[in-house]
Amino acid sequence: MQGTIDGFSYGFVTPVAAFVMACLGGALGLRCVVRSLLNQASWKPGWLAMGAAAIGCGIWTMHFIAMIGFQVEETAVRYDVGLTVTSLAVAIVVVGIGVFVVGYRGATPGTLSVAGTITGLGVAAMHYLGMAALHLNGEIHYDIVTVTLSVVIAVVAATAALWAAVSIRGFLTSLGASLVMGVAVSGMHYTGMAAVSVHLHDSGGTTWAGDSPTSLLLPMLIGPAIFLLLAAVVVMFDPLLVLGDGEWDGKRTQQQPAQDTRQIPRQPSPGWQRTPTSTRTDLRL
Length: 285
Prior knowledge:
- This protein is mainly α.
- The chain has helices at residues 13-38, 44-68, 81-105, 109-132, 144-167, 171-194, 213-236, 239-242; strands at residues 5-6, 71-72, 78-79, 134-135, 138-142, 196-200.
- The chain is elongated, with a radius of gyration of 30 Å.
């Protein structure tokens, strides 16, 4: 028996909220990466790590906010706690790999292609690992063509996000890049969800286990949401990020070369010589 899937059981509330969280995580992550690249005095690993965590939390939060609106009318949906937490760790780690690669090696085409592919595959793995956490009275099947399309979207979105992280400098352009990133991540999610079909078991018994979406996902979303809030506070109160485009010309972060203050002895010019004067006095009687 084919299950009836509804991915928008709360209307447009969950898609809009998911999109906002993806944009927030992307915006914070991009600004953190920019901060690490353009201020040589900053602690680069720390800013890159916070940027990766912000982007990863934004993607994961987007996914599970959208999943709150997912239901199968003929059966209840439950979630496995371990796989749900593991999907969050996967999102942060794979984004971190891409961010650190481009953060230290630059935005060359080869570096971007490798880092973008790794990050995109990791984002897709996070999505389908989160889907594997679903427990219901049936089996979930996927359309291979649509799944492949969702993975391609994830790789392209990750590559574009990493390029923006190391190439875009201004605040407004970073904001625009985060909006594009939110669209791409949301598009990848709902493309992957379009590949889903559920074949229900003949037995009507409750043979599944786990926690309901509201009892599990809502409390779990509090942690990443708080982290994004704290990251936003750090970004907002960092003077170099608040001052905007004019302070990101690189002139204020570059160290001036030290001037040579050594005393160089002056050489007398060839035309100036000290002529001895005679102190002898001729006396004439």
